[in-house]
Amino acid sequence: MKKIFDFISRFAIVILAIITLFPFIYMLLSSLMTYQEATSIPPKLIPSKLNFSNYAEAFSKAPFFRYFLNTIFTSLSTTLGTLITTVLAAFAFVKLQFKGKKWLSLFMAALLMVPYEITVFTNYQTIAKYKLLDTYWALIIPHLASVFYIFYLRGFLEGIPMSYYNAAKVDGCSDLEFIWKVLIPMSKPALFTMGILSFITGWNSFLWPILVTNNKNMRLISNGLSAFTSESGTAVQLQMAASTFAIFPILILYFVFRKQIMRGVSRSGIKG
Predict the structure, then answer these.
(1) Residue 253 forms part of a structural domain
(2) PROSITE patterns per the record (predicted)?
(3) 32-70: pLDDT as tens digits
(4) CA torsion, points 31, 250, 142, 59, in degrees to nearest 10?
(5) Do 178 and 163 form a contact (C-beta atoms < 8 A)?
(6) Which residues share a beta bridge with 234?
(7) Is residue 77 within 8 Å of residue 141, measured between CB atoms?
(8) What CATH number should be reported for the domain holding residue 103?
């Protein structure tokens, strides 16, 4: 009976892996097809000839190098900002005592239930009011803090004994010195995971850049995929080539640091 159960479990894992990986494999293969092959019905899975020229043509259709630099800059900026604000906020919730702490915590927990789409329009009005449209500030400022990451790191910091903080205060350390010399070194797995996930979120940003930028030179790499759609149709093979270029840096980043990400998630107590 156990062998049958193991076989079914492994078979289910294989099926799920195929379902998950197929879109990526098909995207890669389609990026090497001709337009006729990419749009054929029934769909063709294997290109008759590897057309690597699709990548060069895709880059000539849109300023992808500019999009790439924009995405790198905004993703790194929002990641650094998120790490700073998250560390300070999580430290305050775990180690400090202040009036209204419980109610503030409940309020922030309630914010986790608010859909992202609801906050988009409020953020847009704020950015427009301060005349920050079509600037890097518009792409960065709304993403400098995350309630989710605050609670994520808070769960990790609660595992650090309060005696460490008390001992540091006795030795004359300020709160910032404790954060820099004790808390951050002990929280590296969680901070590393937060940094990677925050960077991936910034890299994949699509809706917000469209709302706050009219100048195409301010767009991010995900927005560049629309360059292959026109009234006459979509150049599917070029769009797939651009999509492959856009997604591969993130896949490489994940596979290189997957162990650190999993370690940070497991030690924080957050699963799934």
Answers:
(1) no
(2) ABC_TM1
(3) 998 888 888 888 888 888 888 888 888 888 888 899 999
(4) -30
(5) no
(6) 229
(7) no
(8) 1.10.3720.10
Residue type present at position 248: F
Q: Which amino acid is at 252?
A: I
89 found inside a domain: yes
Instruction: Quickly tell me which residue has 């195409």 as its tokens.
Output: 216
The structure tokens listed for 177 are 């010195």
Residues of the chain with pLDDT under 50: 269-272
- Number of domains observed in the structure of the chain: 1
Total residue length of the chain? 272
Whether residue 246 lies inside any domain: the answer is no
Q: Are 175 and 164 in contact (CB under 8 A)?
A: no
Residue 237 and residue 40 in contact, taking contact as beta carbons nearer than 8 Å: no
Cis peptide, bond prior to residue 43, ω within 30 of zero: no
* Cα 58 to Cα 98: distance, rounded to the nearest angstrom: 55
Identify whether 102 is part of a domain: yes
Give me the domain span that covers residue 207. Answer: 63-230
Would the pTM count as exceeding 0.85?
no
42: helix, coil or strand?
coil
